[in-house]
Amino acid sequence: MSDVSSAFRAAFGHGPEGVWTAPGRINLIGEHTDYNDGFVLPLALPLALTAAASRRPDGAVRFRSGQTAGEFRASLAELVPGAVEGWAAYPAGALWVLGREGYPVGGLDLLVDSTVPTGAGLSSSAALTCAVVMAAAALHGADLPPDRVIRLAQRVENDFVGMPCGILDQSASMLSTEGHALFMDTRTMDTEQVPFAPGEHGLSLLVVDTRAPHRLVEGHYADRHRACKDASRALGLAALRDVADLPGALAALPDDLSRRRVRHVVTENARVLEAVSLLRSGDVRAVGPLLTASHASLRDDYEVTVPEVDTAVDAALAAGALGARITGGGFGGCVIALVAADGARRCEEAVREAYRERGFAEPGVFEAVPSAGARRVV
User: Is 209 a catalytic residue?
Assistant: First the structure.
């Protein structure tokens, strides 16, 4: 963390009072279920955002990022929804939400640096928001438990940035542990650390950054969210998680679009529960087909894939992957593939070759290693 502390000192002329880190995440399975009170199974990545911060006595805020040139400057009073654009909206929103929730906040110098790719669907925004909520609260005397950080970080996205997300990303960033996936019931917030160490089973979980920009605030995500809420109301249910009779529910819906959205959510919840059962028993290989079934559902029923994503999935499967799917909210972002460790290079090369043939930008490929969640490091 010395590099971040040194960069902070160079930027602001004094050292930070503390340093916090929060990881990016992938979702093994359970996509678009969180805002339907359903089940999710994410894990934290070794890629993380680090935030160095210190208080200011004058009520001003200064934000800098290792990934973006320049400095954002404002007063606390100017941090209101709609007034801040770009990456700075997330730390600005963290201070706004803390203030609205009655926590003491004041001026802040903040420098962030991240190894989580932006726009890849690896939850760089949740990592940023969680880290800043933790930092700003702690510096002003509030020791927030993880579940409180999660809810406050979600409010930043919902109420300040304008992204109607659930709590999957923030929960994965805050609660994950090394060598496990995080099984969570998003209605009750009950969690279970489910053993997931592919390397111990001769497997590897590859992540393909498709380089197709992952943009969710532009309406697509909100459209899916709204369709699910409308369908729940039409069925007289609190949330789609409560659908007990899928054929009956589908027959009761007025149009094909609603039926396809509901079918994805209900079958995806079932896939999460089956994946958790398999991991509890140590049968990691059997999770592969569930990933592929999830992708087909997200492609055909939820319609959140793009050509780069489908190309990566098809190429990985053709090269012998046990399963592959889009991960994250969709409309770009990343693909995960569960592969035999000795076949990982073959799958990677197959995806790269398929991209060259289609004229797509070169993808990024790395191995996902289940890692620890957010924490204060200095």
Answer: no
